[in-house]
Amino acid sequence: MDCAKVVGARIVRPNKPVKRMKGVLKVLHRLPFTVAVPTTAGTGSETTLAALVTDSETHHKFTINDFSLIPHAAVLDAEVTRSLPPRITATTGMDALTHAVEAYIGRSTTASTRADAIHALQLIQGNLLRAYRDGNDMEARRSMLRASFYAGRAFTKSYVGYCHSVVHSLGGRYNIPHGLANAVLLPHVLEAYGESAHKKLWELACALKLCDESVPLKEGAERMIDMIRRMNAEMEIPETLPGIRREDIPGLAAHAEAEANPLYPVPKLMTRGELEQFYYDVMEEEA
């Protein structure tokens, strides 16, 4: 879907190279009629204004963000997701979860984006493990497509956070699957936000019935993070990511910082050194 968006952008801006479309509002032309048919329940690209591009020369990922990239129509057909293997079902589902969480806890939310994020998370909570365990559970497959759609609609208006900026650097440099990296990194990023994210994570925990309003904010936030870790474990998603090289980390963190600051409305700003820690947290032990 992202490729189709970029092709459409090049059709309407034939003299503008893809690299010059990086950033916000660099297309500014209506694309040809576009119908998006997601084949996984994760990216939400069928409803977003973003197209993610990997630069094969620099091994960095960058986004093109423009309202004209939002598809004119989306077809959510669960049948095309029936054959997804469990591992991809798991990691793409956790991608949708990451979109919803980061959209909710940021500092640029609205009532509608918060509602979309909660709706997405409730659908994911009730259906992702079902789809993972039984790929022919079409009710769960349909619900996950809806969850991905609502999470995409939330983050295209409210944006994401440091988890995504770190993940983009890993995907560009090592070709680590986006959903896998999000699933592994998200608990670490949420913990690092500390008090700045406690209230909103507590709100999500309450919405998912992980706690009630009598539970302190910090405890509710911890329950939300624990739920994410439990889902990862139940779907056999690892706690580390392969291939990260220690000598690459300063450059990766610099790229993540440049992407996130000041574009992403994160709960709190982090330094490049703080971002570096995330790579150390999830890298495999060196021989």
Compute the separation of the termini in Å. Answer: 39 Å
Structural class: mainly alpha
Uncertain runs are none
Give the radius of gyration.
18 Å
* Number of discrete helical segments: 10
Strand order of the largest sheet: 1-4-3
Shape: globular
Total beta strand runs: 5
Written description of the protein model:
This protein is mainly alpha-helical. It has ten helices and five strands, in the order H-E-E-E-E-E-H-H-H-H-H-H-H-H-H. Helix 5 runs antiparallel to helix 6 and helix 9 crosses helix 10. The mean pLDDT is 95.
Quick structural summary:
The protein has helices at 2-12, 86-105, 111-133, 138-158, 162-174, 178-193, 195-207, 217-234, 249-260, 272-282; strands at residues 23-24, 35-36, 50-55, 60-65, 73-74. It is mostly helical and 287 residues long. The longest helix has 23 residues, at 111-133.
